[in-house]
Amino acid sequence: MFKNEEMEINLGPQHPSTHGVLRVKLRLDGETITHCRPMIGYLHRGVEKICENQSFFQGQVWTDRMDYCSAVANNLGWAEANEKLFGITVPRRAQYIRTMLNEFNRLASHLIWLATHALDIGAMTVFLYAFREREDILDMNEAFCGSRLTTTAFRIGGLREDLPPGFEKMVQKFLAKFPSCLEEYENLLSENRIWKKRTVGVARLGAEDAIAMGVTGPVLRAAGVPYDIRKAFPYAAYAEMDFEIPTRTEADTYARYLVRMDEMRQSARIIQQCMDGMPEGPVMAKLPKILKPEVNEVYHATEAPKGEIGYYLVGEKGSSNPYRFHVRAPGFINLQSLPKMAEGGLIADIVAAIGTLDIVLGEIDR
Amino acid sequence: MSEPVVPETPQVPEPEAPSGPYVYDYAASPQRQIVLPKTVPLPSYRTYLAEQKAAAEADEARWVKMQADFETAKAKAEAEGKEAPKPPVRPVPRKDDHDMKTPWPQEANDPDLLRLQEILGDKVEEIFEQAGELTCQVEKASVLEALQLCRQDASLNYEMLADETATHYPAATGFAFSVVYHLTSISRRKRLRLRILVPEGFLPESACAVYPGANWMEREIYDMLGIRFANHPDMTRILCPEDWEGHPLRKDYPTVGLGQRDIAFREDRGGMLERIALQKAGQLGINLKQPKAE
């Protein structure tokens, strides 16, 4: 009574491994995926339309809510795109603080990635360890701007407030213990036989395919392309920082794990440099009360934890609202390559493929 | 023997059909609020130069008029034997000490833009730089050629299509949308913006042939702005449901007062769910049955 035909199933939209409400339509031949079609839009809120009907300042709270795991990185891209549109120069101290907070955010985002990715694959323990360190970073967010997740950390032209007293002590305490924490995670995973069997050689995406599909971030760097916007098109204070771009050539899930672990080390290095070289001075540029742009269009891309986040703004003369507000979400573009990674593999591996892309549906659907 | 009693079939009343249309006619909705833009904020060096020239001429004309007014006032005062009025002072633009320097469009000097113009010739409509970004506007029919050139030319070598999006310009004449392609050259660390202007109903060539990553971006453009692309492998909606009406990022798509979507309850044979929906809406003060007449 064995039938030999393909079966079509839905993964999601409420599956816990899809990190939100992603629906993937799969066609299976036994356990092998022959066709894969991601279907998105369940979380579409019309962020772009909303931001076009609000002033330039008001758009920021919506960038928090796009990729809620890396709100600070989204804020940074948004603030710099606006500054480019108006032609604002930001004070150096503000640049340093922004850089530092952005790197803390990268750590938090990578930690939540590590926790959930390991949980998807079956390593429960890492989840608890990674969330323990993420908690410290969220505490620092709270000390700086009063909220933990949706930070709204920056303003156009700088920062609203300087660092709070005692912040440096918190940072040093964190940096002192973080390398040993990273070792802890690696002890749990790097040489773990089950982890390696689930990740090595799974969901490959070669450099040529990745570039053609527009994939950026750790997924591209794990394919051997040293493209990091922090180095290629330096912004904030990254031009003055000394750090490396970790790359791997294997282009599989395990390589992406190693790249992200190395990136966390580099982030800690950048934070240390920011604390050491923190300049004195104001944190807010001198600006007119109401910002009204001239006719201009800008596309500003920054390196978010998940890849290139770009803001495309069009300014209308005399209007305090952006005429066009578009976000190039890294997850949206990266998710496009899921069929390439999953087709031909086993159905159990698509969970690893979704996890390794590090997607957040809030920014994909916007 | 009495005849067997034929049980009467009970008369089930037909479910009442809603008397009025309970779906808003979107266009006639009284709460519909749209403020259509009056200007066309399309950055362009040519427009900027024309505007600057017009502003300088207007300034000069104002100055000439001020001087003439002064002369007449002076002559009048002399004739009446009064004190002569003060001579006019030419107004200078107010200086501000902000950390803000508006980035104006500038003439293109970048070798990439010049090379594009050299190869494509008349197909390039405009090249300029603004805020450190390079813009090249090409003819709408030859966008695929320009993309291929950027991808394959050894001295351009733009490997990645970072982003593709469009903007709606309802106030413009001759075109309705601008479609922009943001290209990145990873090896040369450069970015370039290609731009085309398309009228309503025009099908631009899809970039998928050159950059496969354009697939979802073009689907999003179609979904949000309603521009269809020719030779696209899968021209369907991506974020909105398949049966969604309208394209949300057009400027004539209202943010308030769109009305209610027609929800077809497929399982709702007796009309029960529909009645509940109407009742619930009534409790919330929304009249789904009859749109309020103006």
Corresponding CATH architecture of chain A: Orthogonal Bundle
Globular, elongated, flat, extended or rod-shaped: what is the shape of chain B?
Answer: flat
| Derived structural class of chain A | alpha+beta
Distance, first to last CA of chain B: 70 Å
User: What characterizes the major β-sheet of chain A?
Assistant: 3 strands, antiparallel
Number of helices of chain A: 15
Fourth-level CATH superfamily of the domain at 106-225 in chain B: NADH:ubiquinone oxidoreductase Nqo5 subunit
Strand content of chain B: 5-15%
Counting DSSP H or I runs of 4 or more residues, the number of helices of chain B is 5
Give the uncertain stretches of chain A in residue-range form: none
Helix content of chain A: 40-55%
Radius of gyration of chain A: 21 Å
Can you give the mean pLDDT of chain A?
Answer: 89
Give the largest interface pair and sizes: A-B, 55 and 52 residues
Helix % of chain B is 25-40%
Description:
The complex is a heterodimer of chains A (366) and B (294). Chain A is α+β, with helices and mostly antiparallel strands and 366 residues long. Chain A is 47% helix and 12% strand. Chain A has a single domain (7-365), classed as Cytochrome-c3 Hydrogenase, chain B, CATH 1.10.645. Chain A has a 3-stranded antiparallel β-sheet. A 3-stranded antiparallel β-sheet of chain A has the order 4-5-6. In chain A, a hairpin with a 6-residue loop joins strand 5 (307-315) and strand 6 (322-328). In chain A, helix 4 runs antiparallel to helix 11 and helix 6 (167-189) runs antiparallel to helix 11. Chain A starts with 6 loop residues before the first strand and ends with a helix. Chain B is an alpha+beta fold. In chain B, 27% of the residues lie in helices and 14% in strands. Chain B has 5 helices and 6 strands. The relative contact order of chain B is 0.14. The interface between A and B is large, with 55 and 52 residues.
